[in-house]
Amino acid sequence: MYAYDELDRTIINERVDEFRDQVKRRLSGELTEDEFKMLRLQNGVYLQLHAYMLRVAIPYGTLSSAQLRQLAHVARRYDRGYGHFTTRQNIQYNWIKLAELPDALADLAEVGIHAMQTSGNNTRNVTSDQWAGVAPGEIEDPRIWSELLRQYTTLHPEFSFLPRKFKFAITASAHDRAAIKIHDIGLRLHKNAEGETGFEVLVGGGLGRTPFIAKTIKPFVHGHDLLSYVEAILRVYNQYGRRDNIYKARIKILVHELGIEKFAQEVEQEWLQMRDSALTLDDAVIEDIRSRFTYPAYQRLPHMPEELKKAAHDPHFEAWRKNSVALHKVQGYAIVTLSLKPVGGPPGDATADQMDAIADLADKYSFGEIRVGHEQNLALPHVARRDLPALWKALDKLGLATPNVNLVSDIIACPGLDYCSLANARSIPIAQELTRRFANHATADLIGRLHINISGCINACGHHHVGHIGILGVEKNGEEFYQITIGGRADENAELGTLIGPAVPYADVADVVEDIVEAYLALRARPDELFIDTVKRLGVEPFRERVYATR
Amino acid sequence: MTSPLEQKKIRLAGPSVVTANRTWDGIVIYRTARQDWSAKLSDAAVVRTSDEARALLAESVADDVGAVGAYVAPVELNDSGNIKPGNLRERIRLHGVTIDLPVPA
Predict the structure, then answer these.
(1) What's this model's pTM, rounded to 2 decimal places?
(2) Which pLDDT score, from 0 to 100, does residue B4 have?
(3) Do B102 and A27 touch (CB under 8 A)?
(4) Would you say B4 and A420 are in contact if contact means Cβ atoms under 8 Å apart?
């Protein structure tokens, strides 16, 4: 965990006071909605179909048990008893009242949580690998750099009114769990030939109406130069990014229109002017941030304790362990993913009672720490392997041990037309029906790793472009239709999916997905050839034929 | 269900109402013929021409303190004159989400 200092606490508390005054003036009529809208957006407050929505940041997906309990309290006290974890490591409350928002934010501030810059045309919540600091083989904990970026970008005056929103993601592992290639700036920690730590910098990734995979702008930027190089990118974007057309305002459009070489030249020129400036990070600054991350006092424990050997005879436990438990960098410990994708449930939702119970389990089994992943699941990052059977039993009682992590029913879905004012079609009922179709664990296990991502509109909050199977809701003559893509992925080999054919009506979506999965099972070269690899090998045509032959 | 946020010109395909969200709590409201707001669709003023819609919308937008994001939304009228939402988006706004909430209301 990172320990906030007095400055952090002062900033958050002052922001609450400021927003309280703004809300008061809005409700009295002193501020018009036109004047107020930008202010509320800068505090993560949207207006959705039924109510205001508050989006709260969870920087780099790390939460303490006390923070999770406070998220539960806000859900219970100010909302309808649940929250929705998003694809950017935020939590959203869907039913919050404007008049009560300042109180909710004040309660969150007590535990160092805020909603600043979770909306608006500024730098958003810095996201990272949910296994940061515990993943085996990691270069180093990427949250140190995430925190540096968080401090640097929070309330940065030059970057508070960018042409459009701007998102960072950081990973330090060979396998990218942070989806850095679909972010405005993606940072991959690695070491150069001299053994120095630095970043491959990628720029111009993003989904939405015009999706792009990020391109490498610089293969290695030394850690000392991270802020100056990032600032050079942001300055070039701030200067040349389009402000006349919201659909062309993201940095991905600028990079595409200029070309990565020309864009890189512009950044390089800007960087040369500021490279050796106050933005250069000296070792003391980096060490200060590093020192404020605390790590558990791990014990020396066996990899295969007796408790685990005994539990391995239970097939239900084994099914869960196989999909939910990952190797930890410290022997005797494990990373445990908590599925927020129960059969028939809305993906990513957790009730206040579940949040409280998870906080208790984190205290008991994970040194009081919880992580949030962009796949809309939670994780306990420091679980002793001997405790896995007991933890599983506790999670199962809470409905949090569905053994489907990374399987076909581990679906990413945006709130869609059930909640969102931008949506054209519903996402959640589609996801719910698919989880019912694939509820049989043996079938899901046979299918293997398969990511279905669903968005209710082209803004792509459900990351449909990079789903192994992507589902995009569109409107046709007042009816809900869905475009289906296959072959997308969001990892280190990120690719955009390919449309397989005409959109299908709401009632047909689950059948179409079943057809695609059946085609895969028939076409795969070996039982261990993953869906995404079969699509890569054969292209979309065999799947297109299967889906549209009878439609 | 094209988002009304993209609504630029008022072209009526049939009977319509003006709807918005109440400022202090965000709930769905409808403009009435009494120049105020109601949470009941049955209280809404129904307009049938673009000019009527434009006038009702202008009056609604003028109440910036009471309501946010007013727009013209289609409705259907049955034989007995009861008003029903004219599309899925408006049905969801009136009746709520189409799924079971994680915590029953």
Answers:
(1) 0.96
(2) 62
(3) no
(4) no
DSSP states of B17-40 as a string?
EEEEEETTT--EEEEBTTSSEES-
- Interface residue ranges in chain A relative to chain B, Cβ cutoff 8 Å: 26-29, 32-33, 47-52, 80-82, 96-99, 345-346, 349-352, 417-419, 421-426, 428-429, 432, 457, 475, 478, 480
Q: Which amino acid is at A511?
A: D
Tokens of A409: 């029913």
Contacts of B69 in chain A (CB under 8 A): 33, 47, 421
pLDDT tens digits along A392-407 = 999 999 999 999 999 9
Residues 4-43 of B with CB under 8 A from A: 5, 21, 23-28
For A185, phi and psi rounded to 5 degrees? -125, 125
> Is the C-alpha dihedral spanning A229, A234, A237, A238 positive or negative?
negative
Domains in chain A, ordered, with CATH? 6-109 (3.90.480.20), 134-291 (3.30.413.10), 306-397 (3.90.480.20), 412-548 (3.30.413.10)
3-class SS string, A119-147? CCCCECCCEECCCCCCCCCCCCCCHHHHH
Q: How many domains does chain B have?
A: 1
B91 touches chain A (CB under 8 A): no
Candidate from A82, A98, A418 with C-beta closest to B26: A98
By CB atoms closer than 10 A (0-12, 13-18, 19+), residue A297 is: exposed
Q: Which long-range contacts (CB under 8 A, 24 or more apart) does A288-293 make?
A: A289/A144, A289/A147, A289/A148, A289/A151, A290/A141, A290/A144, A292/A2, A292/A3, A292/A5, A292/A147, A293/A1, A293/A2, A293/A133, A293/A141, A293/A143, A293/A144, A293/A147
Taking only the tens place, the pLDDT of each residue in A449-458 is: 999 999 999 9
CB contact under 8 A, A47 and B64: no
| Residues A312-359 pLDDT 10s | 999 999 999 999 999 999 999 999 999 999 999 999 999 999 999 999
Whether residue B58 is contained in a domain is answered as yes
8 Å CB contact of A50 and B96: yes
